[in-house]
Write a structure and sequence with these properties.
With 327 residues, the chain is of the alpha/beta class. It has helices spanning 6-20, 44-52, 60-72, 91-98, 101-104, 151-163, 212-225, 243-253, 268-280, 302-308, 312-322; strands at 3-5, 24-28, 53-55, 76-81, 113-119, 144-146, 167-173, 180-182, 196-199, 204-208, 230-234, 237-239, 256-263, 289-293. Helix 9 links the parallel strand 13 (256-263) and strand 14. The protein starts with a strand and ends in a 5-residue tail after the last helix.
Length: 327
């Protein structure tokens, strides 16, 4: 199968869906000719014109407000917020408007809206441009939250998101855009709310989100050299969360490590970890362990940034502790 980068997979999904459905359009800052901060939409304006690849002023609230209005009038907007940090500027539109329409109308009004944004810590970006804010929206019923970790999932989950009648927040890790992987040319969807076991194992389960999936796989390789077989579960979607697949894995292995890049307190690891406790407590041979970033703003300094984040070595050491093999 051919390989695409994560960036190319997202663009292919956008192009294919815009050709298939004339109600789909893009809206965001500098997306028409500059292609956005990560060049995802670069060149698309030549095919689809400025009517469907719309540049906006620097106003996130205007972007999301306009997208909500367009959605309520029969369109399917894909609104780009360049960094998830800037979602705080338009949180009222997301939380108090987009998330509530379908419920408030008794299901009679759909609101198909994709908010496509980037997240992830990178050294040198500072505390206001390096956050992982997806877990904040877990506390808001009415919004779906997805975090694809591979180019295959990036395309399939974006197509599923655009076709969904509900608002979907599509979070792409900024350091995954150059990642290559197999991507079918055909139209396909990856169902939202379905986790995936991407490495089979028997001794413990590593349940990971986004970029941490790749760190977990690297840690699992190192564990294999020690004779330990780790199963890796890609969460894929935080809302809806596939508790069944996660708990099925933990019931098999008896041990669980939950890994997420965001700060640990009140984050995705808390929700996933508690779901494991509730769903398969009697099968646990050890307490559930969580691994996330430290609870302080992201440093500007590169070395400090790296020390703040979980990585494959931290995952490896946590797994050894779970297995009672501390070095």
């Amino acid at each position: 199968m051919r390989e695409l980068t994560y960036r190319e997979a997202i663009q292919e999904a956008l192009c294919q869906e815009m050709r298939r459905d004339p109600t789909v359009f893009l809206i965001g800052e500098d997306i028409a000719y500059l292609g956005g901060p990560y060049a995802v939409t670069k060149g698309m304006c030549e095919e689809f014109t400025e009517e469907r690849v719309r540049d906006t002023p620097i106003s996130e609230s205007a972007i999301i407000g306009s997208a909500i209005g367009a959605s309520l009038n029969g369109m399917r907007p894909v609104a780009e917020i360049s960094l998830c940090d800037f979602l705080m500027v338009c949180v009222d539109q997301v939380v108090n408007q987009a998330a509530k329409y379908r419920y408030s109308t008794g299901g009679s009004v759909n609101l198909p809206l994709v908010i496509r944004t980037s997240y992830g810590t990178r050294g040198g970006s500072g505390a206001q441009h390096s956050q992982d804010l997806y877990a904040m929206f877990l506390n808001v019923p009415g919004i779906k939250i997805v975090l694809p970790a591979t180019p295959y999932d990036a395309k399939g989950m974006l197509l599923a998101s655009i076709r969904d009648p509900n608002p979907v927040m599509f979070f792409a890790h900024r350091l995954l855009y150059g990642l290559k992987g197999p991507v079918p040319e055909d139209d396909y969807v990856v169902p939202l709310g379905k986790a995936q076991v991407i490495r089979e194992g028997q001794d413990l389960s590593i349940v990971a989100t986004g970029k941490m999936v790749h760190e977990a796989l690297a840690a699992a390789d190192k564990l294999a050299s020690d004779g330990a077989r780790a199963e890796v579960v890609d969460v894929r979607s935080l809302a809806p969360l596939d508790r069944d697949t996660i708990c099925e894995s933990v019931r098999k292995t008896g041990r669980a490590l939950v890994v997420d890049e965001a700060p640990q307190t009140g984050g995705a690891t808390a929700e996933i970890g508690m779901s494991i406790v509730e769903g398969c407590f009697d099968f646990l041979d050890a307490p559930v362990v969580r691994l996330g970033a430290r609870d302080f703003p992201v440093p500007f300094n590169h070395a400090l940034t790296k020390s703040n984040l979980p990585d494959r070595e931290a995952i490896y050491q946590s797994c050894l502790q779970l297995l009672g093999r501390e070095e």
